[in-house]
User: What shape does this take?
Amino acid sequence: MLEIKNLHVDLEEEDKTILKGVDLTVEAGKVHAIMGPNGSGKSTLSYVLSGRDGYTVTEGSATLDGQDLLDMETEERAAAGLFLAFQYPVEIPGVGNMTFLRTAVNAQRKARGQDEISASDFLKLVREKAKALEIDADMLKRPVNVGFSGGEKKRNEILQMAVLEPRMCILDETDSGLDVDAMKLVANGVNSLRDAGRGFLVITHYQRLLDHIVPDVVHIMSEGRIIKSGGPELALEVEKNGYADLKAEVA
Amino acid sequence: MVAAPQAKTDTTMQIDAMRLPEGGAWITAAREEALARLRATGLPQRRDEYWKFTRPDSLTLAEAPRAALFEDGDEPEMFGDMDRLRLVFVDGVFDPEASDDPELAGVRIERLADVAGQDLHWARDLYGTLEAGGQTPVPRPLAALNTALAEDGVLIHVTGKASKPINLVYHHRSETSDALLHHVVKLDAGAELTVLENGPAAARFNNVMEVDVADEARFHHVRVQGRDHERRAATHVFARLGRESAFKSFTMTANGVMTRNECVINLTGDDASAHVAGAAMGDGDFHQDDTVFVTHDAERCESRQVFKKVLRNGATGVFQGKILVKPGAQKTDGYQISQSLLLDGDSQFLAKPELEIYADDVACSHGSTSGAIDEDALYYLRSRGIPRPIATDLLVLSFLAEAVEEIAEESLRDEVTTRLSGWLERRRG
Assistant: This one.
């Protein structure tokens, strides 16, 4: 479903190469995890896939269901089914969470040639999804992420994911800043979306999130490349021995 | 500095040519005094410090520049869903046929054009008084001109809590109309009133509202200046606030080649509060100026100025805001913020925030910023599938929200937000 081939990416501002040939395929129905030390390029990969400004792809390709992602605007990628749960969700004062969600749902439906969702159907849909994530009516009414705690922001990301029902979900360090209870809520939210038609790419520093969202494949990223791939046991190995051993082993 | 004699002669000649309207004893006296004030200051000119950022020419020319009429199409009526008492003016003349009966419990409403021979002592004591007081330390000649020459307007005396808002509706029907309206609002102790104003009014509109808010009274003002792009307006709101009284005024400005809104507030009773806010959206040859002067002359008063402007395609926004804290006005809490969102490199925001403080136990702050759309927020919205133009509009509304939230009543806030989104939607490519 998501196919990344030999992806090379420069950071425009610093004229620095961040990704140096990433190869990765995420199949429908599978959860892939990427682990790696700080600065290895994990977050850059998520930004490049979703189309953030400031990065230049110098080589390679990235496709979603055969469509060239790199040739699309950020909003087109979203409408094509790509979703990125942000590490640092942005606060938008003055725009209600519901207005934001509804605008997003309808924009994606429009892009796919579907009719707008009715106000009552939308309300029903959001309420149902919000309940599972323990997001109350007050949080839905408040401006997007404004005054939300770290945990509330992450739950709000998963709510957006649940409402938008993307084909391919990328979670960028969704576990950062979460206590155990919030992590469980988030993980349950993600697990309930696991589906034969949907792929996940979970980016994380630590193994603990993967106790709750059990991956099919784990990749280790270092210095802009995936240096090792394996099953869930690879995450445990990293947890035990750190990244340095792995790097030495590959080198 | 001595004014250039030639220019001075020009405005003196223009002022000498002005003829006061017919009226009874007290109104004529008030007009003559106002004309004398105008004569002393002359009309505003480009070299005046207070007009540094806004060219007064089109507001002072003997004849109003022509302004094309806007086809309102199927746009719903402003404040249309609200229970309100409508008083309609067409090109600056009251239209009783189009208006509601001016009957409201606890409120007396008179027409300025009808005051001749009537002894309305409450109106007599107020008409031109706050305007005259507002001429120092900075002259406001266009307001004196208004007091002298305005023939129409409403005089409102509020003795209780008005059960619904009074809505002054200003229609523009003639491309060359030059309208002056002068309103007087007197709120007795403990009285409450909301005044709504909307409509383009005329090709050129000079509007003055004097508001006397007695002890524990509350005045709420929401104004929408929109539509007809070529119109020009100079408006003044003068307010005097008594002990524990509250004054709230919000103005939305969209379109208009020239708008100067001055607001002059005097906090004269202890524990009073005054909030003035504005949200302006300009596209192209738009020039909008908010000039605010708040004087704290009593203890423990609170004042707030919140002004936001969104500017694109070369539009210009101006903010001149001052907080003056007089000796003895201890425990003053003064706040002022003016911000602009510049959607391109051609637009400009000119700001002159000022504090002048003569008391030692006060908390005053002010800030002014200009910025562009937040790229991180734009990316976040787009990553959810919201196309760039819609995402930009959401961020514009987000930017203006802090000013709109100054409107106390939710239904009015929603109405204003709907108008702001409508304006943005019509401009989407």
